[in-house]
Each structure stands twice: as C-alpha cells, then as structure tokens.
Amino acid sequence: MAVKDNYVVIRMGVDYLTQWATSWSRERVCGRRGIRKNCGNLWKNQKPYLSRSAKDGPPAVQNRPVGHPHPANSNEGRTGIRLPFSPRFFELIYASSFLATRQQRNPGGAKMSEPNDTSMSDLPECWPALPLQAWKDTYATLHMYTQIVGKVRLALTPLVNHWWNVPLYVNARGLTTTAIPCGKGVFKIQFDFLDHALRLETNDGLVKTLPLLPRSVADFYCEFLALLQSAGIRVKIWRMPVEIPNPIPFDEDHVHASYDREAVHKFWQILVSVDRVFNEFRSRFVGKCSPVHFFWGSFDLAVTRFSGRLAPQRPGADSITREAYSHEVSSVGFWPGGGEIKGPAFYSYMAPQPQDLSESQVLPETAFYHQQLGEFLLMYDNVRTTPSPSAALLDFCESTYEAGARLANWDRAALERSLNSSSSAA
User: Fold this and answer.
1) How far is CA 174 from the centre of its chain?
2) Which residue has the higher pLDDT, 305 or 80?
3) 7: buried, middle or exposed (CB in 10 Å: 19+, 13-18, 0-12)?
C-alpha cells in the first residue's frame, strides 16, 4: 500500500504463510486462547526490524523466525518499511483465511456449527452441573409456581398461533412475561432469580414483590392472587396443574414446598446459556420460526422452525394439540429431565416425523434417538463437559434439523439464511 515514496510490505512468502496456516488450522475453531498461544510462540522467535524506504537504497538484512528456512520465493530484495508482526496480526490472518475457506466449502450457505464468539460463552460457570436428584423437590415446586403465573397470562391475552401468547421468556434476571393487558393499562410479572422475588410491575409505575422462599404451592397461590388484587388486577384461572402426573389443585397443594436458591440460580444460568445458543440457531432461519420461549406446562425452553406447510390432522387430538401442531415443525428444546430421563437433556423432534428419521446420524456422537419418546436426545452433562458446550449444542440443533428437513423435503433454499447474508451489518 503506497503512501508517497514509502509503502508497507508484508514480506511472507506463499509457502511461509501456507505452512503456518496449515498449523493453525489444526487448532480448535473457537479456541481463541489456542490461536493466541501459537501466535505468541511465533512472536517470541520473530525479531522486529525496520528496512529503509526505496529512496534510501537497498534494504538492510532482515531476520526471519528462528528455525524457519529461507523460502525460495521469499520476495527477498523488495524494499519498503517493514512493520513488526503482533500476535493479533496473525490471529486476524488466520481468522480471515478460515472464513474464506469455510465459505468455499459451503457455497450454498450451509450451516456452520461455530458459535459467534461475541454472543456466547463456554466458561464452566455458564454451564453448571445440576443433577435432577439434587433439586427435584425445588424443581417440582417452581414448576407449579410458573404454572400459576403462566395461567394468568393465558387468561388475559388473546390467542396467538401455536399458543405463543402463553410462554415465559429468559431475561437478565430470570423469567418474565411480556406486557399483559388489563383494564386501562398493562402489567408484567417477573421471576427474579437474582433477588429471588416475584415482581409485579404496571405501566403506571406500581411495583409489588413476593419473596421466593420455601413455601407451599397453596400458600404461594393465595398470596399471589392477593398480590394481583392489591394492584387492581382481577383474573380467574383454572386451579389444576397441567402436563404432570397426579396433579394436585394449586390451593390444596401442601406437598410441594421447597425452594433452594442456589439450585434455582444454576437452573436460570443454564437457561441463559441455552437461550443464547437457541437464538443463534434461530437467526439462521428465514422461514416462520417461534421465539425462544419457556413453556411452563412442560417446563422446557424451546424454539421451533416451520416448513410453511399444513400438517396432517391428528385424529382424536384435543384442541391444544391441534393448535400446537397445525403445521409441519422441527423443534429443539431443553428440560430438567423426568420419568425415564434421569437428568437434564436436550431434545429434537419433527412433527410429523418423516420415515427413517430415527436412523439418521446426528451430532455430537453422544446424541441418540429415544424410541419411546420418538425424539433425539442429548444429555446436558455430555454438553457441558465438552471444550465448547455452545458448539456442541449447535451441532445437535443443526444436524437433527437438517436430517429431518432433508427427509421431509423442506424447501431449505427458501427457508435457510445463506452464509453471506448472516454476517453482521455492524
């Protein structure tokens, strides 16, 4: 790049760059520390120098990294200002070459499993261990708390396709509703898992809280309804839990009364990490797709893609199921486990399920097809213990979707975002 008489020359022969690029390509894609380590070693052996400009005559003798042979086509003899390379320079060179290579290998915009470094974290504290047995009583109690709050949203909001008006959403403090209409204004309800309180806020500035602590579902139910009434919110909900075996009416449930703050905080932290991965997965689809939302009935976080085609009617299905599965879907989710599944797990399914889906090879290798559930499963502990949990989870999301979409003949070219268009505009 010429600036008057001086210009910068990156004096690396093609074979020199190729040798290092080949070495770097063995590094884990998301292992930025590994890239820096390699570049740092190279930097320690590199002697910085400054050659003269063209008008000052031939350049001075310039040093190469120790142990590196003189390239036959090394561009020796060129003149110009030579700048010392930094580890960041080599990291950028590698990143650029990797992205170019990936684009060549995926000209049609095939999906990439590497998470966006700016929006995901693989730190161990972001993926804590949470054995089902260690918090099953708190889990059962919190499940009922969320159902009580969720039923208020169900009662006061208009139906949105596939029941999208009823879930909760992960946010920076816990789980929340969106604005719920009531009377002349709106309100929202927030499970705050940092301060461990249920927070009610209205658009006129009113804020009321109910501490989250060990108390029976019956007591929570009564105190929560009293909280709503004190804010002028009148609502009637069905007092029976749903989607659980042996349900107990909320106002009669003195069985479930546990609240372990540490376990709840860990569960929320897992939801935060999973929510980020699911939103990355969601961003790669331009067809109809659900938000990433938390269904309080089944107590799971999920995101669902749609082919755009109507699904065959299900004989004998109830109105809830008919609405949920009126169209062809591919869904992936996370839940704490239960029944035959003895720990937290990720799931993926197609509805209707295409023939031979169960025989498909998916990623990562620890994922498997559960015949009784009719879903692919990946245990959470097999994700959190990998070098990159977010990459492993994205592999599961992408590979299970692609297997089903291929077998079901989805119009993937029209539904999926190409690699070029998925890059940031910032």
Assistant:
1) 16
2) 305
3) middle
Q: Which segments of 157-231 does DSSP mark as H helices, in order? A: 217-230
Return the SS3 of 188: strand
**Looking at the predicted structure, is the pLDDT value of residue 17 above 80?**
no
Rounded distance between C-alpha atoms, residue 219 and residue 251, angstroms? 7
Angle ∠(147,281,273) on CA atoms, nearest 5? 55
For residues 386 and 280, membership in a common domain is answered with yes
> 219 and 299: one domain?
no
Q: How many domains does the structure of the chain reveal?
A: 3
Q: Which domain holds residue 95?
A: 2-105
Return the closest-CA partner of residue 60 out of 46, 49, 70, 71. Answer: 49
Do 274 and 403 belong to one domain? yes
Q: Rounded mean pLDDT of the chain?
A: 79
- DSSP per-residue string spanning 332-385: EEEE--BTTB-S-EEEEEEESPPTTGGG---SSTT-EEETTTTEEEEEHHHHHT
Three-state secondary-structure class, residue 298: coil
CA angle 281, 275, 169 (to 5 degrees): 125
